[in-house]
Amino acid sequence: MSSRLDDELSRLVSAGVLRQYQADSIRDAADAELDAALADPGRPHPQSKTQAPEPAKPKTPPAEAHPNALVEVLGYIGGALLLGAVALLTLANWGEMGRAARVSTGTTAAVVLLGAAIVLAFMRRHEQLSSALASLGCCVAGFATFVAIEGETGRVIGVVVALALASVGLWWLEGSSLLVATFGILAVGVLVITADVLTPDAGSAANSAGIAGTGFIIVAFVFAMLGLVRDQVTSWSLAGAAMFSSSICWLVQERGEIMALAVGTAGPAALLVAYGRTRRSAYAVVGCAILLVIWPTSLYQLTDNMAGVAIGLVVASGVLLLAVLMLSRRRSNE
What we know:
Order of helices and strands: HHHHHHHHHHHH
Number of helices: 12
Structural class: mainly alpha
């Protein structure tokens, strides 16, 4: 099987056009056809040589393409409007609302969003829309849990509820939007656990920043593993974003500039290697953006001098350009 077909199938799966089992079926059919052709090169084709080939019929887009797109757009707008209405209602009347009203408002919004996502999933229609509504519903359900329980315990349990719902949705619906929601929930969870569980009352914010930085490294590892079974481009890009968040935390940590520089370099380096192997532009964009933020900031905190920042950037640029030349030379030799 050609690597071009494999790359194209991977791209279609990442874009949500095909499901993984569909791509596997196409790949197996191509392998079977190739094996049959190699085993019997002289076998006749299904179409007789004496028969003139029929002219190919022009492919027309399915009639349901535009209605489906319109329905999905309307669904996105409807979900966003519902979430915005709940947010405005909550913010405007939070002081006057009783505890029961707060809980019922959040619970109703979560039930509506998750219910719509479940109905669409069972109908097997608009899978992207179903995933988007489910991702919003998971976040709202976590907030409603926090409102119902309140305090440190409410924050922790709210994160657990939201993460559990997002995990179920990610396993069932396999949508990229659920990956983004999972990343947001885990990020909030790192901050909540750092502040409410792992940091002593007498601890300083600078010391707790290192704990949060370690937590974001764990989040990056989780998304690196998720990329092996779910949308690889989104998962690995979010892993890079988690490494960036870790770098920011290490910058706040006392004497954490070296660690911030190391973490802020390791994440983009992995993304740039992935870009070199797959040519997915998202890896290059995320990796370069992290480098452009972390390197100047870390070097300035280390040297407290703009000249030191400039020298460090020149050195980093030289290393990157040398790596590009070496990789280009190796590719040309191959």
